[in-house]
Amino acid sequence: xxxxxxxxTTLMPQRLAIATTLRNAAPVxxxxxxxxxxxxxxxxxxxxxxxxxxxxxxAQRDDHVTAIPNDEHLQQRWKASTLFAAPFAQAEVMAxxxxxxxxxxxxxxxxxxxxxxxxxxxxxxxxxHQSVQDHFAILTARQVPGIIYPNxxxxxxxxxxxxxxxxxxxxxxxxxxx
Length: 178
Prior knowledge:
The protein is an alpha/beta fold and about 180 residues long. Helices cover about 35% and strands about 10% of the residues. The chain contains 7 helices and 4 strands; from the N terminus they run E-H-E-H-E-H-H-H-E-H-H.
C-alpha cells in the first residue's frame, strides 16, 4: 500500500547512495553490493579501513562503487574536518565512520545524490511495503530532512557463517517500548 501524497502528486526518481566503513569484508562484499544495487541504490561509497584489503581492488572495478582506502589522501581529508581529533581517528572505529561519512557526504553532493544511507557492511536496507526508490521519493515529497531506521540484528543458526547475506534467515525481534 502506497502512502497518499495528494491528488496529482508524482514521485520523482531519487539518486540513492550508501556509505560504509569496512574491514575484512571480502566474503560478503559481493553480496552487499549486488543486493543494494538490485533494490535501487545507484552508488556505494566504501571506505576500506585496511588499505591492503584484498577486496579493495575488486570494489574499484565496479563503476557503481567508489572504493576509498584509508591512506594519506583520505587522512588529509579527515584533517580538514571540524570533527577531526587525531588520537581518536586512528584508534576508534566510530570516529573513522563519522569522518568517512563526512567525506561521503561531500562526494555524494558532487554526484548529485539525493539520499545517502549510512550502514555497516553486515547490514542491508529493506523496504517491505514499497520500492526503495518510492520510499525515498516519499520522504523527499514530505520534506523529511533525515531519518533513523531501527536495526534488526541477524541471528546465525550455525557458528561458521561466511556470507551472512546468503546464510542467515533469522532476526531478533525488536521490542516495543511504551
